[in-house]
């Protein structure tokens, strides 16, 4: 099968097109023929070697951890999915990623795509959508009328977080540039703080949850907007326990756990019209396009998800 692999850590030029063996599956897996995948910051962070201590992969390494496609083979223990099913998934974190024509996936990590969902939309959801869900629902225990601050609302995780929070009936504030104001209003954001011209920590008060995707000074300032016993959840750096204790809030760090059941809940929100994946730019499946897609992701200014069309 065709795949884009890296055989060493380094810049985007290490992404090379190769012909590799199609993966085999075990009794608990299916083989998904991938129609689309998407780019996430973890892809180029792994490529650069920033995460090699946390994720000690063997080379050659196929990056990518979002997939939408069709099941072409299933193991004998798989009971809830069949060959021909349209599925999307955040596969397990292995060196057999989704910059490829096929990927093996455990049954419990799969979700069925709604009929009206495109493969490009489906591929944009898993990693970012599940991260937002686990921050707000699992850690934040979000409920109706909660006040939620989502930093960088126009980003991959941020735009899903806004929509998930609104589906629970929360009041949502977000930080972004003025350029993204209309876009974020279309997602349901109630308050948009232009971080270039205003300090969110002096404007917002008595919030229940903050989702931090920036870290550093922004994380520290975020404590000031939370009410006592509020929750700060970060996806970039573990919060300082002493700082959280001083502000009398609960703080934690979320590292995504792949989960097919939660992905199916996101599919239900899509069907109900409460979740719209924002597909930004799409690229073809070749060496140069993947290098260009990584370069775009590394600018931190891509709106919505960067999607790769494979089939």
Automatic annotation (TrEMBL):
InterPro entries from the UniProt entry: ADH-like_N, ER, GroES-like_sf, NAD(P)-bd_dom_sf, Quin_OxRdtase/zeta-crystal_CS, YIM1/Zinc_Alcohol_DH_Fams
Keywords recorded for this protein, A-Z: Oxidoreductase
Organism: Pseudalkalibacillus berkeleyi
Domain Enoyl reductase (ER): from-to ranges: 10-308
CDD domains in alphabetical order: MDR_like_2
This protein's name: NADP-dependent oxidoreductase
Keyword Transmembrane appears in the UniProt entry: no
Pfam families on file: ADH_N, ADH_zinc_N_2
